Amino acid sequence: MITIVGIGPGDREYMTEQAASAVRNARVLLGGGRVLRAIGSDSGARLVELPADGMADTLVALLEDETRLGEVTLAVSGDPGFYSLARRVMARFGRDWVTLIPGVSCMQIMAARLCKSWAGVSSATLHGRARPDIGSLASKLLSSPALVLLFGEPGKIADDIGWLCSDERIKSAGAALGWDLGLPGERITEAATLGEIDTEARGGRLALLWLEKNGALAADVSPAASFARRGVIPDEWFEREEGVPMTKSFARAVAISLLSPLRGARILEIGSGTGAMTVELARAVGEHGRVSDVESSRAALELTRRNISRAGVAARVDITEGRAPEVMPEGRYDAAFVGGHGERVEDVLSAVWKRLEPGGRMLLTSITPQTTSRALKCIGDTTPAAGIWRAHSSYGRGAGGDWMMLGNNPVDFIWGDK
Q1: What pLDDT is recorded for position 230?
Q2: Domains of the chain
Q3: Residue of 219, 239, 244 whose CA lies nearest to 229
């Protein structure tokens, strides 16, 4: 008997319990090198690595030999039903000899990231295959909610997209290109049309292209869902109250960049204000991460709760009422953002530093020279791995058919690495 196990993208958190059990209990485990490196330590099985070239042909021969000795387990990335080696195995051995254990496919992850349903979506692959007829791809695009293309070698993707753009119906489709979906290096870029997609903004090994006709990819959905595919949320989206400070969008963008990567991380935030930065941190850590917030103002707390609820990330945030450093949540953290500190900058930074895991980063924002000077000295005395950026930004406003630029206050970003 042959068991084909879908292990998902390769991150252990995406493996089902059934898949993990099959891997642990395997007699012999076959798979590509990347797959075996991702899960091999979980199994006491004899590991047989499939070659990168000619994998499908080699696999059938190996299975014929191994099945004479007993049951065989084949581990494949993603889901066995989504362009995997399972089709070749089923064709050779038949369903009476094969058991499939499903996994999470890159298409499912992409649909989730885009807040889309994958019901009725058409798909095709260029991964180890010749290019299909481009007219048939255009027909699939026009007759289904979306067309998903699985790409092959990263170095050929720009050429493949150029080829796709030779058909105007495909070139004008809304596009999202996802790299290494479900892995730490995941990256998704979007464009109004495929002809505008940035093929250089890539994550690494495997890419998936999601296409929708007539600009459907940018269709209006709920505010939280629409921003889930873009950069930081615009300032005007948040509920505001007089006297409650907010970290502006450009500062949030810089802060998230300086703290990245954050997916799955535990983050400590001191001072939430309106909750704008809390929302961005919660979006960045994903469903398996956690944000612990400390805020002393009752008005700010209520505003934060409303904004994280509107953004759909409240389940990822723990809020503690009180003033740091006297009130601090328990636990250790992968990163920390200090947006509110009052007059006790050094005391707050010292308390936060103690909560930081080795390898973590503490980041503070400042808009006054005195706070910047004190924070730099405190962090610089604590760690040699300190740094500062000063950002001057402007935003555009329409003015009689033209645009004028209005300046924001400069913001200092001061950090230290543990």
Answers
A1: 59
A2: 2-104 (3.40.1010.10), 107-219 (3.30.950.10), 230-417 (3.40.50.150)
A3: 219
The count of C-alpha atoms lying within 13 angstroms of the C-alpha of 29, restricted to the half-sphere facing its C-beta, is: 28
């009422």: which residue's tokens?
A: 321
Average pLDDT over the chain reads: 86
Q: What is the 3-state secondary structure (H, E, C) of the chain?
A: CEEEEECECCCHHHCCHHHHHHHHCCCEEEEEHHHHHHHHHHCCCEEEEECCCCHHHHHHHHHHHHCCCCCEEEEECECCCCCCCHHHHHHHHCCCCEEEECCCCHHHHHHHHCCCCCCCCEEEECCCCCCCCHHHHHHHHHHCCCEEEECCCHHHHHHHHHHHCCCHHHHCCEEEEEECCCCCCCEEEEECCHHHCCCCCCCCCCEEEEEEHHHHHHCCCCHHHHHCCCCCCCHHHCCCCCCCCCCCHHHHHHHHHHHCCCCCCEEEEECCCCCHHHHHHHHHHCCCCEEEEEECCHHHHHHHHHHHHHCCCHHHEEEEECCCCCCCCCCCEEEEEECCCCCCHHHHHHHHHHHEEEEEEEEEEECCHHHHHHHHHHHHHHCCCEEEEEECCEEEEEECCEEEEEECCCEEEEEEEC
Partners of 412 in the beta sheet? Answer: 366, 390
CB-count burial class (<10 Å; 0-12, 13-18, 19+) for 67: middle
pLDDT in tens, 135-179: 889 888 888 889 999 987 788 888 899 999 999 889 888 888 888
